[in-house]
Design a protein that fits this description.
By secondary structure, the protein is of the alpha/beta class. It has 10 helices and 12 strands. The strands form 4 sheets. It has a 6-stranded parallel β-sheet with strand order 2-1-3-4-5-10, sandwiched between helices. Strands 6-9 form a two-stranded parallel ribbon. The structure holds NADP nicotinamide-adenine-dinucleotide phosphate.
């Protein structure tokens, strides 16, 4: 039976691993929230090694994009020093390290979908610390980085739940219409991660290691995504369009986050659900 340690287990992705545990009967999961394993602390290394995991799935991250602009120290400590501790632990325990990255690391103008090999021009503190974290993780041979975007889950602080909450008291909203990307449902991201693990178990060897983009299929603006959320909820909402500049958030946002998933699909012979189908499943699960 393979042993998988999930760090950051109380975030939206970590909680989804917990929720889907019974889908993977051949796995002995250990779930560690920040209280059990704080990846930013040096003692986390020994704690991870002691569990002798075959795989470490790191769902822990500093994810408060705007707060990071004034809290650089914490963002660095978690996303960079934390990544270093994970690499040290994985190397000592001979574990495969699976880590999640962000569409924010690209932040380039491009006509087509972003490929893993495209230039990286991260703009804000969060984006820069995530990119440095990627580079640290990539120094370890047995690593997988899944670069994802616009993550949503039944539970947690995400765009879907923010829209639903706002819909309780509001009848009109302005939503940004000049940022393009694809939402990612955590259940599909967990399934993709487990597909990778199955492949690595069947075919041990280093040819699968590396970085892969992963989101749901499709391309939308936040405005389009909000429209679909209220349509599916059957909520009458007057939606206006606004711009990134008018929204004026503290941290810079990429206008173009549409990632190519061809590398993941070809390598693992996997299909990816469309974001609309994923949204429908998420809202159904909340009922
Ligand atoms: N959310 C998105 O839209 C998005 C987009 C692209 C990429 N990603 C990436 O996807 C991954 C999962 O994100 P998510 O949406 O699940 O994030 P999340 O809901 O914010 O969860 C992150 C978890 O990490 C925990 N954590 C923070 N510092 C820690 C530490 N030092 N040690 C252990 N745990 C710590 C947090 O605990 P506390 O609650 O105690 O802080 C939280 O439970 C991250 O790598 C993120 O960068 C997310």
């Amino acid at each position: 039976m393979k042993r998988i340690l999930v760090t950051g287990a109380n975030g939206q992705l970590g909680k989804t691993f917990r929720a889907m545990e019974s889908t993977y009967p051949g796995v002995k999961f250990t779930f560690a929230g920040r209280d059990e394993i704080d990846i930013a602390q040096p003692d986390s290394v020994q704690m991870m090694i002691a569990l002798k995991p075959d795989f470490i799935i790191n769902c822990a991250a500093y994810t408060q994009v705007d707060k990071a602009e004034t809290d650089k120290k914490s963002a660095k400590l978690i996303n960079e020093t934390g990544a270093r501790h994970l690499v040290e632990a994985a190397a000592s325990a001979d574990s495969v390290l699976i880590h999640y990255s962000s569409d924010y690391v690209y932040h380039i103008k491009k006509k087509g979908p972003l490929k893993e090999s495209d230039p990286k021009k991260p703009q804000g503190i969060y984006a820069k610390t995530k990119w440095r974290g990627d580079k640290i993780v990539a120094t370890y041979k047995k690593h997988i980085i899944l670069r994802t975007s616009w993550v949503f889950a039944e539970e947690g602080a995400n765009f879907v739940n923010t829209m639903i909450k706002l819909g309780e008291n509001r009848d009109s909203l302005n939503i940004v219409d000049d940022q393009w990307g694809a939402p990612t449902f955590t259940r599909d991201l967990v399934a993709a991660t487990m597909t990778i693990i199955d492949t690595l178990m069947l075919h041990p060897g280093k040819r699968y290691y590396g970085t892969y983009n992963y989101s749901n299929e499709g391309l939308v603006s936040w405005y389009d995504f909000a429209t679909a959320i209220f349509d599916l909820k059957g909520k009458k909402m007057h939606l206006g369009k606004t711009s990134t500049a008018a929204y004026n958030a503290p941290a810079p946002r990429p206008h173009w986050s549409h990632m190519s998933k061809n590398k993941f699909k070809k390598t693992f012979k996997a299909e990816i659900p469309h974001w609309y189908d994923a949204l429908r499943r998420c809202l159904k699960a909340q009922e």
